Amino acid sequence: MHEDFERCVRAVQAKDARFDGWFYTAVLTTKIYCRPSCPVVPPKPRNMSFYPSAAAAQQAGFRACKRCRPDASPGSPLWNERADLVARAMRLIADGVVDTEGVRGLAARLGYSVRQVERQVFAELGAGPLALARAQRAQTARTLIETTTLPMTELALAAGFGSIRTFNDTVREVFALSPTELRSRAKGTPQAAAGALVLRLPYRKPLCPDNLFGHLVATGVPGVEEWRDGAYRRTLRLPHGHGVVALRPEDGHIACRLTLADLRDLPAATSRCRRLLDLDADPVVVDDQLATDPLLAPLVAAAPGRRFPRTADGAEFAVRAVLGQQVSTAAARTHAARLVVAHGEPVDDPEGGLTHLFPSPEALASLDPETLAMPRSRRRTLLGLVSALADGLDLSAGSDWEAARAALGALPGFGPWTVESIAMRALGDPDAFLPTDLGIKYAAEMLGLGGPAAVVARSAAWRPWRAYATQHLWATGDHAINRMPAA
Fold first, then answer.
1. Under a CB-based contact definition with an 8 Å cutoff, are residues 258 and 199 in contact?
2. Which helix (H) or strand (E) element contains residue 455?
3. Digit-coded pLDDT (tens) for 243-264
4. 34 is known as an active-site residue
5. Among 80, 151, 213, 406, which is most exposed with the fewest C-beta within 10 angstroms?
6. pLDDT by residue (tens digit) across 10-52?
7. DSSP codes joined into one string, 211-253
8. CB-based burial label for 181 (10 Å; 0-12, 13-18, 19+)
9. Is 68 a catalytic residue?
10. Pick the catalytic residue: 34, 65, 256, 273?
11. pTM over 0.90
């Protein structure tokens, strides 16, 4: 996108917010970089230069615009649409892997050498993994400066900086303001009670929250998830501790309230919340393609901007998918709640009714199958999955989608429905599809699509957005997953 100069110029002159996060505009005369929708008068084209990432613009010597805050724009949709090396690397960088494990740890997770990862990421993003992580640390620092009263020394360490001097220098270089000046300018920014952070998670319009929040709440596990005061709340297992998040849809953003045991987990928590709600999607591109099918067009027109809910923890969702095999949603929730009480880690939630983290694969490794109130065959399936997860089956944000599918398909009791459910929600593959799902069969009958084979054939025209098409098809039924919960 950033290499198409004329298209970028048109987007900037139109102040088209849909391109925020796709590229960044650097103004050669002011040495400032902006998002395409910046409200100031656009510069002359001869004074524009375009970069694929905020980190690349920063490396080139440009500082962030104080009006449009390009560092806080929605992320590029490409990183959640693709499964290649660069996309996987970007998802892991957003999850904080470089900060916790370094570039060597990032490369090890991806299965490539450090040199290969650095070369390919730089070729596409204009900056290497370290520079991208540095830009993320700067944004984390700004968030903490503006939403907490932490002393700057503590804040610098929480944001991932090795020293207060590096923290000060980076903030000045990126934002052209000192940390103290940033905090002074942020007076009036909403702040939560001690220990909590109040954030705005932007997205590209339109957004249809009905199925997104309806699905999460209808399938929520008691003690781990709840709907309270118009917000979806859940516990999070994070690299340095645990967290509790409350997410509420607002116009143009999701209101996010985070309580973290360790502030170093802010980037990972934010990334997982964005991924859970599919906030980096480009709904116009998706809807335009799905609407070319005359049977889907009325569904898209009725609810533009449908996302498909993902998950905050791939291993957790895989376990829940097995618990949900051939049983009702209510029964699946009951099975999961029992596991949570027996094997989950207790957490304190003074603001609500959350009680536990969902059990980790390591905790479930000691599971006694005789305690499970389910058929013996499904017990074997669950134990096989838990063993595979404990042995390193990767269902994280940086996983290889096809390798994960193959590994899941080789486990006992894993058919296409379970594999594709995990591919959709845990791996986040936008083209995952469930032609044998009961909801899809019902929709196919209602719309005259025919049987599963006919649906698969017709779905070729929906690619690579079949997971989004699934959400529209499910909406043909009157089910709680299709409705926004009542406040």
1. yes
2. helix 452-459
3. 999 999 999 899 999 999 999 9
4. yes
5. 151
6. 999 999 988 999 999 999 999 999 999 999 999 999 999 999 9
7. HHHHHHHHTPPTTTEEEETTEEEEEEEETTEEEEEEEEEETTE
8. middle
9. no
10. 34
11. yes
